[in-house]
Amino acid sequence: MSSITTTSPHTITPELPKQLLSYARAGALGIVITVGNDKYPTDAFAWVVALDDKRVRFTVDHHSKTLGNLSRDGLAAIQIIGPDNLVFLIKGVCRSVKTNLESVPMDIGLWEMDVIGARDQSWPGAAPLPLAVQWSGDERESMVKTEQAVFGEMREA
Predict the structure, then answer these.
(1) pTM for the whole thing?
(2) Per the structure, how many domains does the chain have?
(3) 73-105 pLDDT, tens per residue?
């Protein structure tokens, strides 16, 4: 398995640090980053759940470039931005776990990452706002319930 090195003052660990693990275990919104055939990065919003400090599960839309990129090389990074300056980029090797999630009425599959590194990207003297979905309108309550059901299915699959 690969390892990640850097000359940056930001720490890179071979597993999820405790504060990131605690946050992502509950379920979070993240940005999955892959590399396309054109060698440029592609990103997509995804639901993310940490199973333990070495495995992270995330959703992938069937109609996205992300699915093709993952199917081709299995490599990805996931950006997590949480509360209290919790900012991490997680890198790893990925595999498909479930073709279709049953808890959501969309064409979304479940992938799992074996973590090879988690880089602390916190900002000194400032903190970005957490990445989150703000459901609105008449479907807000229903979408919040759906999201929680998705997180549950992601943990149990």
Answers:
(1) 0.90
(2) 1
(3) 999 999 999 999 999 999 999 999 999 999 998
